[in-house]
Amino acid sequence: MAYDYRKAFALKDNPFSPLQPLDGLLDVTAQNDLANNPLLINLEPVLETMFSPDAGAFGTFMGNFQSFARMKGYREKPPGTGLSSFAFSIYGNEGTGKTSMAQYLISWLKQCKPKTGEWHIFDEWSLERMADPLKQIERINEVQSKIEKEISRGSYCCVVVDNLVPGGALDRAIEMFDQLTAGRKKWIVFLFLLSNVNELFNELSGAGKRQITPFRMLPLSADWAVSFVKHRIDAFRDSDVKVPWLAKYPLFPFSEKDISGAFASNKVLGLVSGDSISLKQFAVILDRMISSRLQTLPADFDISEVAEKDVKTHLLPLSREYERLVA
Fold first, then answer.
1. Which DSSP symbol is given to 296?
2. Would you say 110 and 42 are in contact if contact means Cβ atoms under 8 Å apart?
3. HSE, side-chain direction, 13 A CA sphere, residue 224
4. In terms of CB atoms within 10 Å, which end of the chain has fewer, N or C?
């Protein structure tokens, strides 16, 4: 059994759920099981290296958010802030990257430094789930009370209300936003409303009574899947491992043709329940595939010793390998 990702795949670590702490990581718990969990970029900026802007509409949304914010006076170079508050929604099915997207937006917004003080970030909800709307309302009350009692008026705040469920929590979050931003002596608030519950999608889309700027997260496409794998493999490729043929197989141990083909033929949908696949589901599949292959290789295996003519026997075909894994 092999244990070394370098010798097995010319990778520094598992690209989908690294086993070793990333350089610069302060709290190792933020890196726990990243195939299943969001990238808490605001809490641990080093995790941004794992964020794949082209693995969905992330890059487009970020560009739109930056353009909108800059028009309202928020900019990173030179740093500056506007005077207005805004509410945003990030909604879509489970595992489509909503929390990671919110963290990415906040990490940029923090670069728009106020003339005095710093941004006050309330994103603790991203660390836990609360299915009870009454508990969500209670948490919103606590956040509002903390801002009003501990943060001076005129300060800049980001509030993330994650995993929203029906039952009044969305209305209470908007009420909090109104109360904090009304009148002249107010706080400047960027509110991010996140949910995967279809019942809330209409209101979160901006079609409701309130002005909310929406970001709709979508299932994974073939192109987005390839971009995700490419980004992670590039981030973890070990250039010190000399493999002559590696330039011809940049996604090794995966193949762009195989990934695209699996999506085009809908074979990948047979690996999950439903009629689409999320980024998280895809990451879990890849994580299990690559870690399982590592365990089946002999302890003395070294990819640098594999001849180019034998490379294809070491590729991980998406649908076939995962079907074997779960059989």
1. H
2. yes
3. 21
4. C
Nearest in space to 221 (alpha carbons), one of 271, 259, 258? 259
Per DSSP, the residues of 186-203 read --EEEEEEEE--HHHHHI
Q: Sketch the domain layout of the chain as residue ranges.
A: 5-25+221-326, 57-216
Q: At 214, is the secondary structure helix, strand, or coil?
A: strand
3-state SS assignment for residue 11: strand
Phi, psi of 128 (to 5 degrees): -155, 165
- At position 82, the amino acid (one-letter code) is G
Domain 57-216 has CATH 3.30.420: no
State how far the Cα of 111 lies from the Cα of 63, in Å rounded to an integer.
Answer: 15
**DSSP annotation of 213:** E
Report helix, strand or coil for 160: strand
Determine the distance from the C-alpha atom of residue 81 to the mean position of all C-alpha atoms in its chain, rounded to a whole number. Answer: 25
Confidence of residue 207 (pLDDT cuts 50, 70, 90): confident
Phi-psi region of 33 (alpha: psi -120 to 50; beta: other; left: phi over 0): left
Measured CA to CA, the distance from residue 267 to residue 260 in angstroms comes to 10
C-alpha atoms less than 13 angstroms from C-alpha of 75 in its C-beta half-sphere? 8
Rounded Cα distance, 76 and 87, in Å? 20
DSSP annotation of 22 reads P
Please give the DSSP secondary-structure letter assigned to residue 31.
G
Per-residue pLDDT tens over the stretch 168-195 = 999 999 999 999 999 887 999 999 999 9
Residue 318: Cβ within 10 Å count: 25
**27 near 322, Cβ under 8 Å?**
no
Q: What string of DSSP letters covers 40-99?
A: -TTT-GGGGGG--TTSSSHHHHHHHHHHHHHHTT-EETTEE--S--EEEEEE-STTSSHH
> Is the previous residue joined to 253 through a cis bond, with omega within 30 degrees of 0?
yes
Amino acid at 303: I
Ramachandran region, residue 185 (left: φ > 0; alpha: ψ -120 to 50; beta: rest)? beta
Q: Stretch 245-271: mean pLDDT, rounded?
A: 85
